[in-house]
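hey team, just a heads up i'm posting the complex here instead of the shared drive bc the drive is being weird again. everything in one block, sequence lines first with there labels, then the predicted structure for the whole assembly after. its three chains so it's a bit long, scroll down
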Amino acid sequence: MIRARGLERRFGEKRVLAGLDLDVAAGGFVAVTGPNGSGKSTLLALLAGLLAPTGGELEIEARRDEVGYLAHEPLVYRELSALENLELYGRLYRVPERRERIGMLLERYGLWPARHERVSAYSRGMAQRLALCRTLLHDPSLVLLDEPYSALDADGARLLDAELAALTGERTLVVSTHDPDRVRPLATQEVSLA
Amino acid sequence: MRNNLGPALAVGALLVLGTGLGLALFWAPEDADQGVSQRIFYVHVPIALTAYACFGWGAWKALRLLWTREARYDLESYTAIHMGTIFGVLVLVTGSIWAKVSWGIWWSWSERQLVLFLVLFLFYSAYFMLRYSTDPGPRRANMSAVYALFGVVLIPVSFLAIRLAENFIHPVVFTREGPQMAGSMFFAFCVCLAGMLLLAAALYQAELAGKRLDARVRELREALA
Amino acid sequence: MSGYLGDVAALARTSLLLELRQRDTVPAMVLFVVSALVVFRFSLPADASDLASLGLLWIAIVFTAILALTRAFVAERDQRVLDGLVLATGDRSAIWLGKVAGVLAFLVLAELVALPAFALFFAAVGWETVAAVALANVGIAAVGTLLAAMAAASRARELLLPLLFLPLVIPVVVGGVGASVEPDPGRYLAFLGLYDLIFAILAWASFDYVVAE
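-- predicted structure starts here --
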């Protein structure tokens, strides 16, 4: 699914990733670990196609609309409601039966009662749940999650645990985390960035 | 091979440009209407054409960048536009001197080429602003390339606009008719143009070599650190 | 194709919906353009012709457009929504086209106030000026939206946009003023149409490179 050779990314003078080799088979689960500033987010943005490598090779066997990407920011309009945001993304991703799919995700992540509220009124944890809905909306075959547990409360974390367990093996997952113990039971490989 | 290109271009530029200027000053006949001041024509017009050539070259490299996504084209496009802007400033300076000598004023809105270069100067200054206020990387390369392409499209569109504007902005008081060039004048002009293009090419090579060396040194320093 | 146009419509609708909720762009544009006209009133000598004031009308329109364009990607820059759209949209030029439609709508709304105000304060507005404004809007929105996306990705942002935009918009001002003041507006209108065509195609084709790597 993913093949990287000598992957490098610089931001101006600063080299954030250098010489990374990575092979991920379809259905694999990669835990990306490392301290702050080690390039975890950069790696995920590279895999998502938001950033281009400045050196090395990167091949991804997935079309852009088969990739789900969870970033630090929720990537949703603050002044639209959860429903309006997901409607827009669902239409852009051409999600079949999108009303049902959106309703099911909002229900699962406990946002259904707040679906008409604007995201600006959401707490950080609710925004993160919405971001998860947005990431999984189009049932991506490659799921990239950048610190998915951040801002989630205990309930939210349990929901995500269950989601990851259900996706494991079915989808290819790359999850960055500063708490590797949380995903280690599911992970098939670990990339440790320094 | 590449190492010899720069010095060869520089020597060639000096020889051809020197010859051209010699021909223009001492050999070409004096213009009947404008007298000696017309001789700035042999510098002014070749500089302007060279500036266009640089902008065009920069846009071509920009197109290559968008096409191939190879980072080296970004530097090449930038360097060409840098050269074009320097020559563009020289167009404004020499044009201004010519206007002062011929008409006693430093600036004339009725001189189309001068007005066009003022617009281009503003446009390409914004190009540098764009580069300075964006972090180096693929995104900046893309945006610079797109803006550079807008530039070469803007040149003919602006030229047309300036011609159209003459009707209502300023009646054309002064005309600088394309001089009825004698054969010898045209020959001197062509030699000057060739010299100026060689000069631009030499400067382009020199700046590019410098910038590449710079990048290489930085890489080595980083590797050592 | 209907999928592409559907994307454009959804994105344009989002722009309008956001403006409807926040009302932070169009009212500012309207207030700005009327203020500008009043300031111009005091900057013209008493014996200045109507033609001079028509020239100022075009300045007011261009600067009001800059106001709209600086705001164009604010909602998308917040929370990195633009990255989300870039990943989700099949053909990214749809993002540009949706935004252009939104900017066009805002421009027209501001001009619905500006042109009558101009007629009230200065001189009658002829059909040729209205036609020129309509044509100029297209070019301004097309070029301006692309440049706004560039400026949004830079550090200088609001500062950079006018610098990038003004040299490119000089031909629009020439075409607009020419159509307003010349006895034969036809070729100026044709020139504006040509500008729209050339730069709209260029911006449409290059937007992808500006928002993605």
